Amino acid sequence: MKRLWRFFPALPALMLSGCTVDLLQPAGPIGEGNRDMMVLEWAVMMCVVLPVIIATLVFAWKYRASNAKAEYLRNWSHSNKIEVFIWGVPILIILVLSGFNYWSTHYYDPYKPISKEMQVKVGAPNAKPLHVEVISLDWKWLFIYPDLGIATINELDVPTKTPLDFRITSDSVMTSFFIPQLGSQIYSMAGMETQLHLMASRPGNFQGEAAQYTGPGFSDMRFRTIAMPQEQFDAWVQNVRSGGNPLVVKEALDAQTYQKYHVPPAAPHDAAPKPAPVVYFSSVQAGLFENVVAKYNVGMTHDHHGKDMDEKAMDMHSESHAAAPSNTGM
């Protein structure tokens, strides 16, 4: 039994051996930048942590009670060198981290479109962006492809090496839109539109999630982000439009059918809601995203330049001045 205790320090590593750290396994230039900044800041912080740990062990050993040869300065009270060191090093680290954070905050600004430099890096300098409108609901995600006339629930299909321009809002409480392996997260809020620009540099099946608690169905508010080559993506779009995919519903996504999918998944009383299934729509009513934003702003929405535009919000059975209804349990 005593021999088994020697393997105790390795227990955490064995318990986590099947886990993956999405933030450290990026699949796009924004994700790579986020990872590099996180590792760089961790390395800078280790410049303090490791010396302190080593010094603690050295001092504990050198000045142990049994070491009669250790120097003992009975009247010592102050050292300018030590004061400069213990204050100067933290100040220097703060300045270095501040510089890194200032640069990365502006370079990886979520509202900033994917740069030409990033497109060249992945080998697609002339790729046109794919526009996706995202609406967070209780407890699922609705993705509208306005240029393609299709939509999905709880599955985001995108082509690789193509800039992804997201417009994000909520028809419920505030939450956070996050695809860890692709990059930055950003909030989704009712009556407001946020933007996010990402790109997948390789094919893959990546997890997306709501990164903020929103009620009993929060743990299942996840979606799959499937990145595929452009040719495969085009075939998928055609398959959805034609209704050939078994996940395509017969009805179009419009003002009436939206109400059906807007409500939380049915669940027994006092039971956690069931996860929403993946659904494809072969056609979508134009302006759905804008009207979801407008219904919380007395029928007003904004263009991409921030100017107010008059727009008649469709009847979604929600009061403009009221907060989005949601059984958050808070």
DSSP, total strands: 14
Secondary-structure-based class equals: alpha+beta
The figure for the number of domains is 2
The CATH homology group name of the largest domain? Cupredoxins -  blue copper proteins
Strand order of the largest sheet: 8-5-1-2-3-12-11
Radius of gyration in whole Å, from Cα?
26 Å
Description:
Helices cover 31% and strands 20% of the residues. The strands form three sheets. Strands 8-5-1-2-3-12-11 form a seven-stranded mixed β-sheet. Strands 4-10-9-6-7 form a five-stranded mixed β-sheet, covered by helices on one side. Helix 2 (29-62) runs antiparallel to helix 3 (80-107). It has two domains: 29-107, Helix Hairpins (Orthogonal Bundle); 116-264 and 276-285, Sandwich (Immunoglobulin-like). It is of the alpha+beta class and 330 residues long. Residues 13-18 and 311-330 have low confidence and may be disordered. InterPro entries: CcO_II, CcO_II-like_C, COX_ARM, Cupredoxin, CuRO_UO_II, Cyt_c_oxidase_su2_TM_dom, Cyt_c_oxidase_su2_TM_sf, Cyt_o_ubiquinol_oxidase_su2.
